[in-house]
Amino acid sequence: RDAPPGLAAFRLTPASRSGVEILSHLVDLMRWAERLAHGEYRWEAAGVNDWDTAVEQFFAALAKVDAALADTTLAPYPAGVMFQGPIADALTHVGQLAMMRGVAGEPVRPESYARATIEPGRVGREQAPGREFDGDASRPVT
Predict the structure, then answer these.
(1) N or C, which terminus of the chain has less Cβ within 10 Å?
(2) What is the pLDDT of residues 2-23, one digit of tens each?
(3) How far apart are CA 109 and CA 48, in angstroms?
(4) Other CB atoms closer than 10 Å to residue 37's CB: what's the count?
(5) pLDDT tens digit string along 111-129?
(6) How confident is residue 110, by pLDDT bands cut at 50, 70 and 90?
């Protein structure tokens, strides 16, 4: 949401992935998670070079993962396999994008994820932030 201009091409170092390369990898991870939910253990890197296209594909893939998790007739791979594989990997890359935003001058606002409204089907980019706040919750109040 509200990515700063230039984040798509931004790299922390010349050898690191750009923002759009990380986002494209997130799309691939969500597609893998959906395939796992349907019993297919197959990784496929498709790659997208356009930020807006990658954002749309990410949210479309995330909606499919959300629907698959709501399906109680999942195939042989339990949800735990999805979480220890593609979802855990995705969380790492979401952290990278958050760090890159901060370095680019537009940090992600702090939010209480533990208090967020979590419900099936609520995964699109139109969802409003739930519990944003000012400051840094990891620092003790003095």
Answers:
(1) C
(2) 888 899 999 999 999 999 999 9
(3) 27
(4) 22
(5) 777 777 777 787 877 776 6
(6) confident
Angle at alpha carbon of residue 101, lines to 97 and 104, rounded to 5°: 135
**The length of the chain, given as a count of residues:** 142
Show the tokens assigned to 75. Answer: 């195939």
Measured between alpha carbons, how far is 81 from 66 in angstroms, rounded to an integer?
15
For residue 67, count other CB atoms closer than 10 A to its CB: 14
pLDDT at residue 90, as a whole number = 95
Per-position DSSP letters for the chain, written without gaps between them:
--PPTTTTT--SSTTSPPHHHHHHHHHHHHHHHHHHHTT-----------HHHHHHHHHHHHHHHHHHHH-TT--SS-HHHHIIIIIHHHHHHHHHHHHHHHHTT-PPPPB-GGGS---TT--STTPPPSSB-SS-TTSPP-
